Amino acid sequence: MQYIGEILDELDAVVQDASSVPMRRGLAVVDRTDLLSILDELRGSLPGELAESEVIRRESRAIIAEAHEEAERIVQEAHRVAEEKVRDTEPYRRAQRRAAETIDRAERYAQEVASGSEVYQDRVMGQLESWFQDSLISVGESRQELSGSPASQAAGERITRTEPGEDEGREDERGWRVSSA
What we know:
Elements: H1 2-17, E1 19-20, E2 28-29, H2 32-45, H3 48-87, H4 90-147, H5 151-154, E3 157-161, E4 170-171, E5 176-180
Antiparallel strand pairs: 1-2, 3-5, 4-5
Helix pairs in contact: 1-2
Protein name: Archaeal/vacuolar-type H+-ATPase subunit H
Organism: Rubrobacter radiotolerans
Coiled coil: 64-112
């Protein structure tokens, strides 16, 4: 190693003694031949173990990468085996049954809610129909009172306005067509 230090000192001296490039700070002109011969001398003086260590370093990186891949495969296989073993246990089967029962109960409840909403819808529509019928009867009775027409004609009958030229249904004195709903 002593010899390598001397070569580096010689390289330093060549760079220090190089002439500067005008108007360019930090640049110098170095004799290429001198520099290349010093570098060759430096390479020749490096111990062979240094080159071997570089080969070993590259090989160790490849071994480590391969070990990581193998470890990943082992972990994946362990997860697969563990999942397989869990499926063979009573708690897993019990959890699966409970999940299926919960889903079944939820589906039955949803069906009951849907059925209940149909009943509610029918009841509301019936109430609306009754209210409209009562309103029509009340309107008919009010018309009778205003016009003085007989009560039998208005009860439960629907009254619509006729257009000129229509002869269908009965008409009252004001041109209204009377028909049963």
